[in-house]
Amino acid sequence: xxxxxxxxxxxxxxxxxxxxxxxxxxxxxxxxxxxxxxxxxxxxxxxxxxxxxxxxxxxxxxxxxxxxxxxxxxxxxxxxxxxxxxxxxxxxxxxxxxxxxxxxxxxxxxxxxxxxxxxxxxxxxxxxxxxxxxxxxxxxxxxxxxxxxxxxxxxxxxxxxxxxxxxxxxxxxxxxxxxxxxxxxxxxxxxxxxxxxxxxxxxxxxxxxxxxxxxxxxxxxxxxxxxxxxxxxxxxxxxxxxxxxxxxxxxxxxxxxxxxxxxxxxxxxxxxxxxxxxxxxxxxxxxxxxxxxxxxxxxxxxxxxxxxxxxxxxxxxxxxxxxxxxxxxxxxxxxxxxx
Length: 339
Known about the structure:
The chain is built from ten helices and 13 strands. By secondary structure, the protein is α/β, with parallel strands linked by helices. It has a seven-stranded parallel β-sheet, with helices on both faces. Strands 7-10 form a two-stranded parallel sheet. It has a two-stranded parallel ribbon with strand order 8-13. The longest helix is centred in the N-terminal third of the chain and has 22 residues, at 100-121. It starts with 6 loop residues before the first strand and ends with a helix. The relative contact order is 0.14.
């Protein structure tokens, strides 16, 4: 692919989309970014991310809702993107319990519009955000892409599994190369205010209590955003080709005869929630006041990514220690809060 051809990044004002776009621009790629700038969390943070691209001639922004069928079709007709990095979605497990239609609009209808745009534009590779939430009721760790994932515990997880199935159908029917990225608890500077690490940091800094679900007995595979971005940029020009040895009588859930793959993007090192709290306390310089609560609907006690496939395909595996990543986040948080 020519580096002068624009890459479409959806959700460019979001946490991961912003970081991916910045990295692609630093590598000399052109980026067209779209986002609807919705109010799921404070749109001023999204605007502040976009402001980082001000004056860059290789970047252009369009405010656009994924569910806008005509608008999405016009965008793809105008640019005929050879690469698409689809990171826009309605995020959040708990929010899906109270606002289910937002997930259908963004994660199902919106994703269909992306698939149709890619099909009609002849896109050479679609990378799209899936989630560790697809593993649902699975308890064997580390979670492997070879595992069956048919038991989601939230509508959010179900929509992400649906995205993988929809992408496979387009890969099979139309030869659209598609790679699903199962992200594991991504954190870091310019992050999301609804995530635990941000909520804990803000509450501890202000002397407010923090809520620890499952009485704090939870482990997460926290993955630093720079590692996620490294995986994405290494995969963007590695479209799947399909496995001629794939067998329908013994189907591998992670691959296909069609040009379709899924990868875990995780740190392969689950950490106790209490460790996260202790690291934030150290960086903030104040002890937390903890409220111990039962497990929330849709949550799971532990996540851990098997990343052998990712490392084999790209030569890269996320490795940033949680202590290093939290120090980076808290430093950014202080700067952002004082600006």
